[in-house]
């Protein structure tokens, strides 16, 4: 049976009650303390201290410290009156003590449940707040990313429109140049025929008069014209393509003592770039093609091959630009440059699709299919792009 402790001490002022309970040599880790507004209990076997307070106290603002061989309670009064004694007059009544003990235990359990509930509620509120903050941050990031993507789309669209306008302008200039050349050729042809008719008239007059005269007769031949319809003949276009190819072979002379003879040869640089490309060194290949272009800016293969390198390192705007330059040089469209035109269209179409400009990309793939109609791989890629466009339209 526990031994009741009677040799405690207490003191008070207007606000606090101080109570000291000796531990009688018991270790502090074996002390069990329980308190409520009216009831105190300190259990440290074989000793026990129970106290039914004279007046209720503020249990939340009260403290208990264990140390130096004693338990010291600092109890906050609910009013400033002086207590005549520490314990209530009912402290000697076992039934009342039992009732107060049970009430104190029940209140303590209820208070513990309320604290746990409040703690859980606060935790839920904190988690809810954290989730809301994360959602706001994610929404802000999504809006920022969408804004960046839209800005890139707008920029790409503006650049494409500018490029289209430049292409149309260049096409008009090329058309005007061809018309001017044709006009000059027709004028020279008419002049030659006129002089030929004039020579024939002079010869007829000399024959009729029977006069033989010594002199030099200049004979001119008119070009032979074949009866093939113009819409079916590609000879003028092929002649123009051959003329452009001959011009493209002219190398710009660069005075640089640091360059070897090979490094001044654009064909050697093109082959060197192809070697770099095959080994996966795309930046070195770009450098080789760029140097070759500086030597000879009219070789379409240099631009087309450099576009393939830009695709590999995801410089899609550069790839589209180089492909367009290659197509510009691959004119007129003849059978001799069909394969090169097909590659340039495919590379520019691929760059457009990577930039999410699927309509423009499909136009280039369809242009490539007109050149190589039996290419199943091109047909599959074009069908895939159409499917993407249709999906975006329906969504």
Automatic annotation (TrEMBL):
Nucleus among keywords: yes
CS domain sequence ranges: 3-87
GO BP: any one term: nervous system development
GO annotation, cellular component aspect: dynein axonemal particle; neuron projection; nucleus
Domain of life of the organism encoding this protein: Eukaryota
This protein's UniProt keywords: Cell projection, Cytoplasm, Neurogenesis, Nucleus, Repeat, TPR repeat
CDD domains for the chain: p23_DYX1C1_like
SMART domains linked to this entry: TPR (SM00028)
Gene3D superfamilies noted in UniProt: 2.60.40.790, Tetratricopeptide repeat domain
InterPro entries for the chain: CS_dom, CS_DYX1C1, Dynein_assembly_factor_4, HSP20-like_chaperone, TPR-like_helical_dom_sf, TPR_rpt
Region feature Disordered, mapped onto this chain: 82-128
Annotated localization: Cell projection, Neuron projection; Dynein axonemal particle; Nucleus
TPR repeat extents: 266-299
UniProt feature, compositional bias: Basic and acidic residues: 91-128
The protein's name in its UniProt record: Dynein axonemal assembly factor 4
Organism annotation: Patella caerulea (Rayed Mediterranean limpet)
């Amino acid at each position: 049976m526990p031994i009741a402790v009677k040799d405690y001490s207490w003191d008070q002022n207007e606000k606090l009650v101080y109570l000291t309970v000796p531990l009688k040599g018991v270790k502090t880790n074996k002390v069990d303390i329980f308190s409520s507004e009216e009831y105190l209990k300190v259990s440290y076997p074989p000793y026990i201290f129970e106290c039914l307070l004279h007046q209720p106290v503020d249990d939340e603002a009260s403290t208990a410290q264990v140390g130096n061989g004693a338990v010291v309670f600092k109890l906050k009064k609910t009013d400033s009156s002086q207590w005549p004694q520490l314990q209530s007059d009912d402290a000697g009544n076992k039934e009342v003590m039992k009732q107060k003990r049970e009430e104190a235990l029940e209140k303590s359990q209820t208070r513990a449940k309320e604290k746990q509930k409040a703690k859980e509620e606060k935790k839920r509120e904190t988690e809810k707040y954290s989730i809301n903050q994360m959602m706001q941050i994610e929404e802000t990031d999504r809006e920022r990313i969408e804004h960046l993507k839209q800005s890139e789309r707008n920029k790409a669209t503006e650049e494409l429109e500018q490029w289209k306008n430049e292409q149309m302008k260049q096409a008009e200039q090329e058309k005007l140049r061809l018309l001017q050349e044709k006009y000059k050729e027709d004028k020279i042809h008419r002049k030659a025929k006129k002089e030929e008719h004039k020579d024939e008239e002079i010869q007829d007059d000399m024959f009729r008069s029977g006069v033989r005269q010594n002199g030099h007769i200049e004979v001119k031949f008119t070009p032979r014209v074949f009866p093939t319809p113009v819409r079916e003949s590609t000879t003028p276009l092929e002649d123009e393509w051959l003329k452009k190819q001959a011009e493209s072979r002219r190398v710009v002379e660069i005075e640089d003592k640091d360059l070897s003879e090979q490094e001044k040869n654009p064909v050697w640089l093109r082959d060197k770039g192809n070697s770099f490309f095959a080994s996966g060194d795309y930046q070195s290949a770009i450098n080789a093609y760029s140097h070759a272009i500086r030597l000879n800016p009219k070789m379409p293969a240099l631009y087309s091959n450099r576009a393939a390198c830009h695709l590999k390192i995801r410089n899609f705007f550069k790839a589209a630009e180089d492909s367009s330059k290659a197509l510009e040089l691959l004119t007129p469209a003849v059978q001799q440059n069909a394969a090169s035109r097909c590659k340039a269209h495919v590379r520019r179409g691929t760059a457009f699709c990577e930039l999410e400009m699927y309509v423009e990309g499909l136009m280039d793939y369809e242009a490539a299919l007109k050149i190589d109609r039996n290419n199943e791989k091109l047909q599959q890629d074009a069908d895939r792009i159409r499917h993407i466009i249709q999906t975006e339209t329906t969504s």
